[in-house]
Amino acid sequence: MGDKQPLSLYVLFGALLAGLSWVLVDAWRGYRVRSWLRHGDLAMAPQMSGWWGVVLDRARKLLRERERTIDAGEQRLKDFLSAIQASPNGVVMLDARAQIEWCNQTAATHLGIHPERDVMQRVGNLLRDPIFTAYMAVDQPVEPVVMSGYRNRVERPVRISVQRHRYGEGKQLLLTRDVTLLEQAEAMRRDFVANVSHEIRTPLTVMSGFVETLQTLDLNADEQKRYLALMATQAVRMQGLVEDLLTLSRLEGSPVPSFVNSLPLESLLTACESEARGLSQTIANGAPPHVIEFQTNPLLAHAMLLGESRELQSALSNLVNNAVRYTPAGGHIDVSVDQGTDGSLVIAVRDTGAGIAAEHLPRLTERFYRVDRSRSRESGGTGLGLAIVKHVMQRHGGSLSITSELEHGSCFKLTFPANRWRAKA
Ligand code: ADP
């Protein structure tokens, strides 16, 4: 009996010791798990068995999921920002105090701000244009505002449209867009409509004047005939204008001429030559007509132009007719065809007319641009001929070049690239 009591004490003591050491080990393991959870670095996760191991596994899994979610979120944000960077429109994000939080490169270029250096700067301090200041002062602007861009210069205007939107809690988004070309196109359209109206109004006014005269005055047969002839001239002028306008609109609206259609160079030259001779006779009105010569390099006698016959015909006939109209009767007009060193085909129309001053040369192909308005009108010009020629040549991949000297005549050259002609049918 006496021996049994100390034995059970030992067992109890042993059990207590084991329990204590289990508690200590468990506390130590718990401490390690807690210290690891504080930074949560997956690579440093302790390895454990038992239920702390289960807890660790679960925590590791949750952390991995969280990291994946964060990575995916970051990737989405990166994709989103690069998409905004790639946009042709500018984007500026402003906080509730109108300070720049972020902007893409396009907005930076449009407005002259720096995407990094100007972060947290008030946009109003950076952009001082009164138009912009007034726009930012409006609470809920509906329309965008258009102002001069950062790179605006007198010789090269840059116009930027800015639109403001509110989002989040007092935040704002500025969207910028380069509208320079749009404004230029709009101005060109306005000018064009004004020009066309003016061109049509002039002959109409003259015609209605004659109609009134015929209605109110008791004219004899000869006078009536004279007035009717003058009216017919104005009608022809209007017809010419409408035809040229239709040609231009056809050129703008139709696809690039195919390489399948071809026009024999010879027939093009023959048609233009007879047209020029006829016009010269009319203009000379009894005086000696122009000396007109058409020469072709014999190697090109059977050449074929590849493209739209009607357009090619209209381009050359415009140049030849201009040469006749702007050269006094008796003057020389030479049309020659040659091959360029780069394989191109060049048709040159030279005249010994009055020539054109250098400052007019760059603008001659603009619609309705004339050096001498009354002279152009007198000879039945519409001011659209060279614009048509330039357009036709561009559509055929070629070009129109003009050289001229006052008092010494002019030379208009049509250059067709090598792929737009063949030496033989
Ligand atoms: P227009 O119908 O007035 O002739 P174009 O577009 O054909 O219009 O020509 C534009 C202007 O270029 C003309 O008004 C004229 O001033 C000038 N021009 C064209 N061809 C010649 C030329 N061969 N010699 C002198 N001036 C020319």
Detail the topology: elements first, then pairings.
Blueprint: H1 4-39, H2 50-86, E1 90-94, E2 100-103, H3 105-111, H4 123-126, H5 130-137, E3 145-148, E4 159-167, E5 171-178, H6 180-216, H7 221-253, E6 262-264, H8 265-284, E7 291-296, E8 304-306, H9 309-325, E9 332-339, E10 345-351, H10 373-378, H11 385-395, E11 399-405, E12 409-416, E13 421-422
Parallel strand pairs: 7-9
Antiparallel strand pairs: 1-2, 1-5, 3-4, 4-5, 6-8, 8-13, 9-10, 10-12, 11-12
Bound molecules: adenosine-5'-diphosphate.
Residues 318, 322-323, 326, 351, 353-354, 356, 364, 369-372, 376, 381-387, 410 line the site of adenosine-5'-diphosphate (ADP).
Order of helices and strands: HHEEHHHEEEHHEHEEHEEHHEEE
Question: In the CATH classification, which architecture of the largest domain applies?
Answer: 2-Layer Sandwich
DSSP summary, beta strand count: 13
Low-confidence stretches: none
At the fold tier of CATH, the topology name of the largest domain is Heat Shock Protein 90
Instruction: Specify the number of helices.
Output: 11
Task: Give the CA-based shape.
Answer: elongated
Average pLDDT metric? 92
Description:
By secondary structure, the protein is of the alpha+beta class. It has four domains: 4-84; 87-178, Beta-Lactamase (2-Layer Sandwich), CATH 3.30.450.20; 183-254, Signal transduction histidine kinase, dimerisation/phosphotransfer (DHp) domain (Helix Hairpins, Orthogonal Bundle), CATH 1.10.287.130; 257-422, Histidine kinase-like ATPase, C-terminal domain (Heat Shock Protein 90). It is 51% helix and 17% strand. It contains eleven helices and 13 strands. The strands form three sheets. It has a five-stranded antiparallel β-sheet, with helices on both faces. Strands 7-9-10-12-11 form a five-stranded mixed β-sheet, covered by helices on one side. Strands 6-8-13 form a three-stranded antiparallel β-sheet. β9 (332-339) and β10 (345-351) form a beta hairpin. α6 packs antiparallel against α7 and α8 (265-284) runs parallel beside α9. The radius of gyration is 42 Å and the shape is elongated. Bound molecules: adenosine-5'-diphosphate (ADP).
